[in-house]
Amino acid sequence: MKLKITTKKYLEVSCWDLDEFLTERFSFDPKYEFVAAEEMSNDSEKSITVEPELDKWDEEEMEKVLEIKKWDCHETGMLLCYLCKKGEIPAGNYLISVSW
Fold first, then answer.
1. Phi and psi dihedrals of 63, rounded to 5?
2. Distance of alpha carbon 96 from the chain centroid
3. Whole-prediction pTM value?
4. How far is residue 32's CA from residue 8's CA, in Å, rounded to a whole number?
5. I need a labelling partner for 79 at 20 to 30 A (CA). Which of 17, 50, 56, 99 fits?
6. 79, 62, 71: which is closest to 28 by C-alpha?
7. Residues 67 and 99: beta-carbon distance below 8 Å
8. What order do you get walking across the sheet with 11-14 strand by strand?
C-alpha cells in the first residue's frame, strides 16, 4: 500500500506578526490575539484557506467588527478573507505558526 501524499503551498505567518498586523489594520482595542482567538497552544500551527469572498453571515459579522473595533473568537479566517476581498493580502493557504 502506498501512502497518499498531497503537496500544498503555504504562506507562512508568525502569530505575533499576524496579531500586530490585524490590530493595526482594524484598530482593535484590545489588541488582536491569535492564540486566544483560535485557542492555540505552544509549538502549533493552524492552516487557513483565504479566498476573496465572504458569505452573508461573515459580511454581517464584519460590519459589526468594523463598527465596534473588537474581535471575537474564531474570526481569523473571516478577517483574512475580508482583507483578501479588499485586495490587501493575497489569496492562498496561510499557515499561522505559534511558538513562545
1. -60, -40
2. 8
3. 0.92
4. 28
5. 99
6. 71
7. no
8. 11-14, 92-98, 44-50
